[in-house]
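S., here's the first fold you wanted:
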Amino acid sequence: MIFGRFERGKSPVEPVTLKILVAGGFGVGKTTCVGAVSEIKPLRTEEVLTEAGRPVDDTRGVEGKRTTTVAMDFGRITFREDLVLYLFGTPGQDRFWFLWDELATGALGAIVLADTRRLEDCFAAVDYFERRSIPFVIGVNCFDGAERYPSDVVRQALDLDPGVPIVLCDARDRESVKDVLVAVVRHAMTHATERRPSVTT
């Protein structure tokens, strides 16, 4: 006899859940990135930009942006029955930073999206993850019309440690974003191995 989706005598599978954050400056493509790979319709908490927020919202370089994330974006990828990845897009503006600590709890790692036209906008996210020893990769979102730079130039501009991966990507493209996610997981595994205490006999 079957009760719901489970056969009698069989325990339901408890999936292993992984969490990855998608961070970066205002208008860098975080919402787009989450939406590109999520298997479900992403939960979005976007609000229209208003005149009241103009003094605190720096829209230089993204003058055409009309909305902003005020809490988080949420997406999901199921790899198999027992392995699920959750994606959390963080708000990009300083006034919503109080949410970051809650979102970062239990995170496997993070993507810091960068726009080469406004690299300084991701300094704060890089600093946040470095201070908390959360492994992260830089995803350089290649906007149309933006100049392309070699990875070593981006690394120097962001003052990154040599071990931090830098991946060129298109936040609109599913396969491109998947490549960045793979880089995060690999980097997180390396990070965990390096921090694991060695066993002496």
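And the second, which I think is the more interesting of the pair:
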Amino acid sequence: MKPRVLVVDDEPGVRKALQRGLRAEGMDVVTAVDGPSGLRLAQTGSFDVLLLDIMLPGLSGYRVLQRLRAEGISTPVLLVSAKDGEIDQADGLDLGADGYLVKPFSFVVLVAQVRAVLRRAQQEGQGRGPLRIGGLVVDRATREVRWHDDPVALSPREFGLLEVLVGRAGTVVTKDELLRAVWGDEQAATRNVVEVYVGYVRRKLDAVGAGSLVRTVRGHGYLASDPQLDEVLSG
């Protein structure tokens, strides 16, 4: 699957430019316009790296970063700011940032930093923390799923499918993408098999009251989301 990047910036031009540029570099990009929206998306644990502006409406980038680290979310964060003071950079790094970029920055340098933190996270085994949507927790380390306090027993294939969907929370995943990610080869199974396994997963989630989190987007694929994520993404 493509590296997944969350860009949190209140400047429309910056968001659009970064989204276009990073997608051209082969990355899956989601954007947020303010601190609370960025925090809600980042709390899913479904991103490989965050590009986080410091001066944000509602909640500063510093506070978003502080909340994420306090909650045990170790997603790599690159802070972006027009402030170039040593104290500002030190404060960000002390809070747990993995890098600091000063506006205006070179896009080439930004991409290099993104790729560097992705490599470092992979080498250090980061980025495999729990995935969360509402009360659903997909623990990638133990391969266990819980809805609030209720365990959800899934087969290895069912777990793999749910992991991919929740790992791209708020984004439609096509049947072909699921075939490649879960079965390893589009030729190893058919799209009908994907439908069957999505049905299995839904029934097991339904049994604990979480069936609405996995949805069919007709003609496109499947989506894992909840009302709070819907609100953030529609905004």
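Why I say that: The CA atoms of residues 18 and 24 lie 10 Å apart. The first strand starts at residue 4 and ends at 8.

Talk tomorrow,
H.
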